[in-house]
C-alpha cells in the first residue's frame, strides 16, 4: 500500500522541512492539494509552492498533484513545469473540459495522469476513461478541507473499479483521499485501493512514522 501524506495538513511555515519529515517517516509519495477557491470552497497553494516543495526534497521523490480547479486544461502546464510526477483532476468538469485531451497532454509531457471522483459522483462517470488513466482517485470526503470524516459508501466504487480493472486487464492505480487513518486503511485495502492519501492522521500524529506504518 502506497501512503501519500497530504501537504495540506503540514505546518506551512516550514513546508520544505515538513516534506522531508514525511519522507523520513516512510511516506511513499507526497500529495499536493491544489484548490482554486471555485471548484472547491477553499484556496490552498499553486504551482510555485509545488516547485518549492520539489526543490526541497530528493529528486526521486514522487509528487502527486491533486488539482481541485475549474480549468485543469489551462493550468496543467504550470504543474508540469513545477516538476510534479502525477496530475489528477476531476471528472466533474467533463462538460467544460476536454478530459481526454488533457489526460493525453499530461502523459505526452512524460507525467502520469489521473481522474478524481467526488463522493456524490457515480463511478460510472470515469469508466469510459479507464484505459487512458494511470490512476483513479476516489474521494472519501467532499473535497476542500482536511480533517473531515471518512464516507464508507465510497468503498463500493473502489470495489467496482477493482473489478473493472481485473476484467479488462488494466493497470491503473486506485487512490483514496479523505478521512483516512489506520482503521479506514484496512477497509480501503480490502476494497482494492493501492494508494492512500492521509493529511491529519500523518502530519498531526504524535509519531508520523508509527502512523504511516500502521496504515501500511
Ligand atoms: C481534501 C483533500 C485531501 C485532504 C486529506 O480536499 O483532497 O487530500 O487534505 O486530509 P485528511 O486526511 O485530513 O482528510
Ligand atoms: Zn487530495
Question: What is the end-to-end distance?
Answer: 6 Å
Please give the count of helices: 8
Q: What's the Cα radius of gyration?
A: 16 Å
**Bulk shape:** globular
Helix content: 25-40%
Low-confidence stretches: none
Main sheet characteristics = 8 strands, parallel
Structural class: alpha/beta
Q: Please write the string of helix (H) and strand (E) elements.
A: EHEHEHEHEEHEHEHH
Bound compounds, each kind once, are:
D-xylitol-5-phosphate, zinc ion
Read across the widest sheet, the strand sequence of neighbours is 1-8-7-6-5-4-3-2
Mean pLDDT: 98
Percent of residues in beta strands?
15-25%
Total strand segments: 8
Task: Give a brief outline of the structure.
With 216 residues, this protein is of the alpha/beta class. It is 34% helix and 20% strand.
